[in-house]
Every structure is written in structure tokens, then in C-alpha cells.
Design goal:
This protein is an alpha+beta fold. It has one domain (7-275): Nitrilase/N-carbamoyl-D-aminoacid amidohydrolase (4-Layer Sandwich), CATH 3.60.110.10. The chain contains six helices and 16 strands. It has helices at residues 21-37, 62-65, 76-88, 167-175, 200-215, 263-273, and strands spanning 7-14, 42-44, 91-93, 97-101, 104-112, 118-123, 148-151, 154-158, 180-184, 188-190, 218-222, 225-228, 231-234, 238-240, 246-249, 255-262. The strands form three sheets. Strands 1, 2, 3, 4, 5, 6 and 16 form a seven-stranded mixed sheet that branches. Helix 1 packs parallel to helix 3 (76-88) and helix 4 (167-175) runs parallel beside helix 5 (200-215). It starts with 6 loop residues before the first strand and ends in a 21-residue tail after the last helix.
């Protein structure tokens, strides 16, 4: 039976990581295959899925210390992901990898079509530098701009983890035509750090629910799981529809989270609520000024 072109099945590969990149890559390829066998048409991996979450260690020599994790694109990981996409006839959002590009180092998500072609890459725009998330010691700010990829399953935007907290980034993806936005992620709680502001996990999901509703688009976040030094990654990968309904949510265990989304629903939301036709861009100039918000 021919599938409804508006219905797209998403598979989020929620995985824990070994210390050895090759072992992580083999696991990711295996789980992409499993997701494809279970009906996924678009499969997403977590942030930095080939490595432990090394940015929890701050060091001025961090880039030299993690030389073993640097990769070029194309390279070993992208070749394996291309083959996995082709074997499963699935679109693959390759989580993110530690990309070396000349003297620059990026947190980069490659995206592959069902035939294995690399559609492009997105380099993480917003780089955090908080306790146990010392990413500025390792990554340069991304220089690709935001990227939306035209695929046979719709227009797909990809951002990475900390980008989740920025409504401007989500809106720009929507203005570029994204029907679905994926956020490969590495987030959890940290031993010894109190959640003084409130529930981090709840805030993490709620901010992306707002992105989905405000932009009339599907939002999917694919997180890692497991304990790595002081970090406890909470999993909870989810798919939210274009009006904020949670279609699927993962546990704290390694698993594949599946959800079928309706592209037509997003179009109905955008037409009905008319958030885009009623925008007032002439009033938003301060969004591009350098202010700290305090």
C-alpha cells in the first residue's frame, strides 16, 4: 500500500556512549538499521554521538587533549552514515561530530538523503560555556548559518542542543520553510549542581514546545542517555507536533523513539493562526542589536 505523503515516521536514536568512537559508530549504524526496519523514514542521532561528552572538562589545552576525536567531513563517520542511509532508504540526521576544518573545530551535524547523498551540514551556532558544559574550550562558533534541507519527506531544519534555547533560531528555520526541526542534544543533570532555577528537564522540553506552536512546525529532540563522569543524561527524547502535542517521549534508557507526524497539520496551524502574515518585522530591529537583556 502506498504511504500518505503527508505522514512521516520519525525515529530518534536515544543511545548511551562508549569511550571508543568506533564502538559508538557501530552502535549508531546498527540502531539506524533497526529504526528503518521499524518503519522510520527520518532518523536522528544525538549530539557528539561518536564520543563521550568531553566538554564537561574545562582546559586551555582541551583541543590538543581531544585530538583523537577530531574528524574531517567527508571522513570515516560520514561515510558510515551515508552507507546506513542508503541501506535503510532513510534520511539520516547525523547527530553531531567534532569536525576539524583546517585550524577550526566545529560541532557539526551532517544530513543524508535516502540514497546516501550528503545534503549538507550545519555547524552549531550558539556555543555554551557553563559549569560542566565548557564547549567554548573546544568548538568555534558555527559559520554555516541556519540550514533547512529539502527532502522527499519535507523541509527539514537541523540545529544542535544549546540552539534549543533561542526562539530567534527556531523562527529563522521556520521562515526558511522548515516543516520539521531536529535538535541533536546532550543534556542532563550534573552531580553537585543544584537545579536552583527550577526543573531543567521540564524547561528544556517546554521551550521547544513553544517553538513548535509559535512556528507551526514539528519539533524533535534526540538526547543521549547514561552516566558519564559527573553527567547524568536524562534521555527523554521527544517529538512534538505543530500545535504543541507530545506525540512520543523516550524514557531514561537506550531506545528508539518513534512517532508519525502529519505535515498537513502544520500547514493547517499556520493558515489558521496566521502567525506569519501578521508579523511586524519593522518593529523587531532590537532583535539584532547587541544587548545582554538585563
Amino acid at each position: 500500500m502506498e504511504r500518505d505523503a503527508n505522514k512521516v515516521t520519525i525515529g530518534l536514536v536515544q543511545m548511551s556512549m562508549f569511550k571508543e568512537p568506533e564502538a559508538n559508530l557501530r552502535k549508531a549504524v546498527r540502531m539506524i538499521g533497526e529504526a528503518a526496519e521499524r518503519g522510520s523514514q527520518v532518523v536522528c542521532l544525538p549530539e557528539l554521538f561518536t564520543t563521550p561528552y568531553f566538554p564537561q572538562n574545562d582546559t586551555v589545552s582541551g583541543r590538543k587533549r581531544e585530538d583523537a576525536y577530531h574528524e574531517t567531513i567527508p571522513g570515516r563517520t560520514t561515510e558510515a552514515l551515508s552507507a546506513a542511509a542508503r541501506a535503510g532508504t532513510v534520511i539520516v540526521i547525523g547527530g553531531s561530530i567534532y569536525e576539524r576544518a583546517g585550524s577550526r573545530l566545529y560541532n557539526t551535524s551532517p544530513v543524508f538523503a535516502e540514497d546516501g547523498r550528503m545534503l549538507g551540514r550545519y555547524r552549531k551556532t550558539h556555543i555554551p560555556h557553563d559549569e560542566d558544559f565548557y564547549e567554548k574550550s573546544y568548538f568555534d562558533p558555527g559559520d554555516t548559518g541556519f540550514q533547512v534541507f529539502a527532502t522527499d519527506r519535507g523541509r527539514i531544519g537541523v540545529m544542535i542542543c544549546y540552539d534549543q534555547w533561542y526562539p530567534e533560531a527556531a523562527r529563522l528555520n521556520a521562515l526558511m520553510g522548515a516543516e520539521m526541526v531536529f535538535y541533536p542534544t546532550a543534556i542532563g543533570t550534573v552531580k553537585g549542581i543544584e537545579q536552583a532555577e527550577g526543573d531543567w528537564h521540564q524547561a528544556w522540553e517546554n521551550v521547544m514546545r513553544g517553538h513548535a506552536i509559535a512556528n507551526g512546525m514539528v519539533v524533535a529532540a534526540c538526547n543521549r542517555v547514561g552516566t558519564e563522569d559527573k553527567m547524568e543524561f536524562w534521555g527523554g527524547s521527544f517529538v512534538i507536533d505543530a500545535f504543541g502535542k507530545t506525540l512520543a517521549r523516550g524514557s531514561e534508557r537506550e531506545e528508539i523513539v518513534l512517532a508519525t507526524v502529519d505535515r498537513g497539520h502544520g500547514e493547517n496551524v499556520r493558515q489558521g493562526w496566521r502567525f506569519f502574515p501578521n508579523r511586524r518585522p519593522e518593529c523587531y530591529a532590537n532583535l539584532t542589536s547587541k544587548q545582554d537583556g538585563h
